[in-house]
Amino acid sequence: MTTADTKSAFNSIATDYDRRDNQNHILQWMRSVVHKVYLKHLPKGAKILELNAGTGVDAVFLADKGFSVFATDISDKMIDLIKTKSKSEITKIEAKTLSFDEISQLNEINFDAVISNFGGLNCINDFGKLSGDIAVKLKHEGLFIAVVMNKICPWEIFYFSIRFKFSEALRRFRKNGIMAILNSEKVLTYYFTPYKFAAAFSSNFTIVKLYTLGLYTPPPYLIGIYNKFKMLVKLWMKIDKLIFSLPVLNRFGDHFIIVMKKK
To answer: Which residues, in sequence order, are CB contacts of 207 under 8 Å at separation 6+?
Structure first.
């Protein structure tokens, strides 16, 4: 699968992205947890480089909190949407169409942190170049915070197993990835355990903290479970917030949040 194919896929969902995001209560909860982690670890007023920024939801949140954000994404349509966000926010947000392979072309350096949310990094499986490129962009001991789709998602295994769809239950374990459908487009998607992911960046980064995201809470695509059992799922969300940094448990879930520091 080519970079052009990936770009086309994400361009196809750009216009409707914010609406679908806002209507999914599980996704909104997940984003709130990620934002909590950002605010916990990012230095006040930090200069941030965002990878796979999408339509700029996180960039706008961070800009509102006083951070300076340089947003990048492979989708030029996503970047166009970022540029149309409110003027008060755009003063703190710069945006440019760049794929992961093109980060080295960015002239800006001395970022306090690099962030990547909601599985954008699951679209590639070779992080050698990217690890070096973002390390160059960061200050000494700068942070890299990534939200990555986990290989081991108990909810997904359980959900498909009780429906006797065992191939789907174990789909995240496929070595060569799976084809995720975005509208009518396909994106090759890979899944990682937290420590497999960290190992890919270990030449330049060390782990600071690891969090689970969605261990007890169903993945966003199971929003129907939330709609049917809202109070129960909200209880699971509260439990997730209580245990999300606990050792061992933080290795599993729909996603994981990994905070790393430049060596």
So the answer is: 198, 258, 259, 260
